[in-house]
Description:
Helix 1 (3-19) crosses helix 3 (84-94) and helix 2 (24-32) crosses helix 4. The chain has an 8-stranded mixed sheet with strand order 7-6-5-8-9-10-11-12, with helices on both faces. The chain is globular. The chain is 30% helix and 29% strand. It is built from 7 helices and 14 strands. By secondary structure, the protein is of the alpha/beta class. It has helices at 3-19, 24-32, 84-94, 111-120, 133-142, 178-183, 235-250, and strands spanning 45-47, 55-56, 70-74, 79-80, 101-105, 125-130, 149-153, 164-169, 184-195, 200-210, 214-224, 253-255, 257-259, 262-264.
Amino acid sequence: MSDLVAARARYVELIAKRERISSPRLLEALAAVPRENFLARGPWRIKSEAARSYRLTPDADPVHLYNNMLVAIDARRKLDTGLPSLWAHFIDVLGVEEKDRVVQVGCGHGYFSAVLSKIVGPKGRVLAIECDQRLAECAANYLRSYRNVDVIHGDGCRDIGEPADVIIVHAGFSHPDPLWLAALRPRGRLLVPLTQRDREGAVIKITRKGKRKGFEAEAVQQIRIFPGRGRGTTALDDRVADWWQRASALAPLRFRGIEQGLPADG
Length: 266
């Protein structure tokens, strides 16, 4: 067994144990997708979840990428790849299945788009949306061999296309966008980080209970994440995000729609 193959096996085992992953398809996808194929050529700037600063890998050997580490996409903006264990946990919580249609808002370089592609299989689809044109171009290039993935440079609050089984948002917002809720199929799931201007907040999972039964929201866990472009920029946004976090942490929050960023029963 090569060093790289062994490192990748340890990486998947670490994530599986740490997050108690229940989906075999997710673990198979993590094992199958080469992380190095979704990054610029190394050496890479990496850091642990708790670290304040990056360190440079000693060389460009991809074995260095098979740890539960953040890798800088743009160190100046503090824009990193998602932490593998964290997003694997979220994908597991969402219960992504074979044949699902998944929409990703903020796909970055497309690593998790590829993981989702493997989970949903050839009869499923992944729409990967990225508002940063340079990142979208990189993702489209990296994902060109994944035939069930479409990458678009667009706004994830407008360009989500057909109804979805799962919508997963990879950036911070002050509240769930009504378009995301409208796009969910019955029993569809949305996962969105609701954060304040300091990038801190909570990840919320929202499930559509049925066409006429409304939605149910629950807090998953705390998070610190890069903000969605142009979103969450005012004190009012902070208060809205804080309200969602507090309300969904107490008990599942049931509602029928969104008005001015908050749940409504109309």
